[in-house]
Specification:
Elements lengths: L12 H20 L3 E2 L5 E3 H7 L5 H5 L2 E4 L5 E4 L4 H10 L2 H4 L3 E10 L11 E10 L4 H18 L4 E6 L3 H22 L5 H9 L10 H6 L12 H16 L5 E2 L11 E9 L6 E8 L3 H4 L7 E7 H11 L6 E7 L5 H13 L4 E3 L6 H10 L2 E7 L1 H5 L3 E5 L5 E4 L1 H7 L1
Parallel strand pairs: 1-5, 7-8, 12-13, 12-14
Antiparallel strand pairs: 2-4, 3-4, 5-6, 6-11, 7-9, 9-10, 10-11, 14-15, 15-16
The structure holds histidyl-adenosine monophosphate.
């Protein structure tokens, strides 16, 4: 027997139903905000992610599914969706034309992480990306778009926001943080963990994200990023908070929220939930005003987010006891009625009705038991008595109401 790869799962039955529901709800909400669908490849040149997500990130450093193809090119299964969408935007010269674009996408992402609940090697994201809007109103809109999705799905969350300022602010902050850490190490003879040591060489702000309690404790009095923001970043951050308040969106400021990808500037945010483990991130995003240029395009603004579909599914599963309800079970009591049944079912399906035809003829009680076991709402059978008057035996399995009906009545009942 050959099994599925660790951390890479099938999607079926109730999970598949929830997946479809999440995509449907999210796509509808995104369309309400003016976003339209884009699909980009699962495989891209490795350089795309190295340059955008950043060499210092765990994603590029440890988690990429990177390999050489038969032509010797280094390619990679996408670990996230933003880079591919940015590439598509630049490739169509929309950056040079200054086009405003709002796109949403969904699909598989791949990260070689340690598989555990809510953390998989192939997982799915629903995301949006907006290009060429500098206004912080759009930052608020993508946050509100997510809030609307969660409201529609009945999911509780906590929203954390922060501002990372411009690359200049961040560079000044990095120097101050490095200085602070060196002082702590020298004065208190405290050694930060080996991951933090590496982060100090690559991108020191990641130490703020360290889960090691000792490291976190020694960062309590670290310099604050908010003290390094320029006026423009400060104004935008204040305005963002004002818009959220005016729209009754609760949030908290988390000065340590730096995100795990290198491309962010100004707004950064995360939606977390306690329903699937302590403060698990169910979505995250922010502004990336330098990424398009960084990938070789013309100066273009960008803002977006991605939501982890499996994590949202886990929350829904924990409270969703609803069984899959199937619509109509159609059956024959004798083989000779199968053609008639087939033609009738085809007509009903073309009218937009969901009907399952069972091809094998069986006794009425056997069919009824199957329909009940499989959670159908309606039951329709054809036997000799029914065909005489061009009728069908109809039963509503929820109310037990049963009667003989003709086609016109039947189509109104299911
Ligand atoms: P991210 O924070 O890396 O952001 O991922 C977004 C969400 O994907 C996370 O909040 C989490 O719910 C889910 N996720 C991440 N890794 C896994 C995993 N191994 N298993 C299950 N779920 C996972 C991004 O990917 C950015 N591209 C978001 C963005 C779009 N920023 C701007 N535009």
């Amino acid at each position: 027997m050959i099994y599925a790869i660790k951390g890479i799962n099938d999607l079926l039955d109730n999970d598949a139903r929830l997946y479809e529901k999440i995509i449907q709800v999210s796509s509808k909400v995104a369309q309400n905000y003016g976003y339209s669908f884009i699909n980009t490849p699962h495989v891209e040149n490795t350089a795309l992610f190295r340059r955008s997500v950043g060499e210092s990130s765990d994603i590029v450093g440890k988690e990429m599914y990177e390999f050489k193809d038969k032509g010797g090119d280094s390619i990679c299964l996408r670990p996230e969706g933003t880079a591919g969408v940015v590439r598509a935007f630049i490739e169509r010269k929309m950056d040079k034309a200054g086009v405003v674009k709002r796109w949403f996408y969904h699909g598989s992402m791949f990260r070689y992480e340690k598989p555990q609940r809510g953390r998989y090697r192939e997982f799915h994201q629903f995301g949006v990306e907006c290009f060429n809007i500098a206004s912080v109103y759009e930052d608020a809109s993508v946050i509100m778009l997510l809030c609307d999705i969660f409201k529609e799905l009945d999911i509780n969350y906590q929203l954390k926001i922060n501002s990372l300022g411009t690359p200049i602010c961040l560079e000044k902050y990095r120097s101050a943080l490095r200085e602070y850490i060196k002082n702590i190490e020298n004065k208190l003879s405290f050694k930060f963990c080996s991951d933090c040591e590496k982060r100090m060489q690559t991108n020191v702000i990641r130490v703020l994200d360290c889960k090691n309690e000792n490291c976190a404790k020694h960062l309590d009095k670290a310099p604050k990023l908010s003290d390094f923001l320029d006026d423009d970043s400060k104004n935008d951050f204040n305005k963002l908070q004002e818009i959220l308040k005016n729209n009754n969106i609760d949030y908290c400021i988390d000065e340590r929220l730096v995100r795990g990808l290198d491309y962010y500037s100004k707004t950064a945010f995360e939606f977390v939930s306690d329903e699937i483990g302590a403060k698990a991130a169910i979505a995250g995003g922010g502004r990336y005003d330098y990424l398009v240029e960084y990938l070789g395009g013309a100066k273009s603004y960008g803002v977006g987010f991605a939501m982890g579909i499996e994590r949202v599914m886990d929350i829904l599963k924990s409270k969703d006891s609803e069984n899959i309800i199937k619509n109509a079970y159609f059956c024959v009591l004798d083989d000779e009625y199968l053609d008639l049944a087939y033609n009738t079912v085809s007509k009903l399906r073309r009218l937009g009705l969901s009907v399952n035809l069972v091809y094998e003829s069986r006794k009425l009680v056997k069919h009824l038991n199957s329909a009940l076991k499989e959670n159908y709402q309606y039951f329709i059978a054809i036997g000799s008595d029914e065909t005489k008057n061009n009728q069908f035996l109809f039963k509503n399995l929820y109310t037990s109401q049963q009667k003989l009906v003709d086609f016109d009545e039947l189509k109104g009942l299911i």
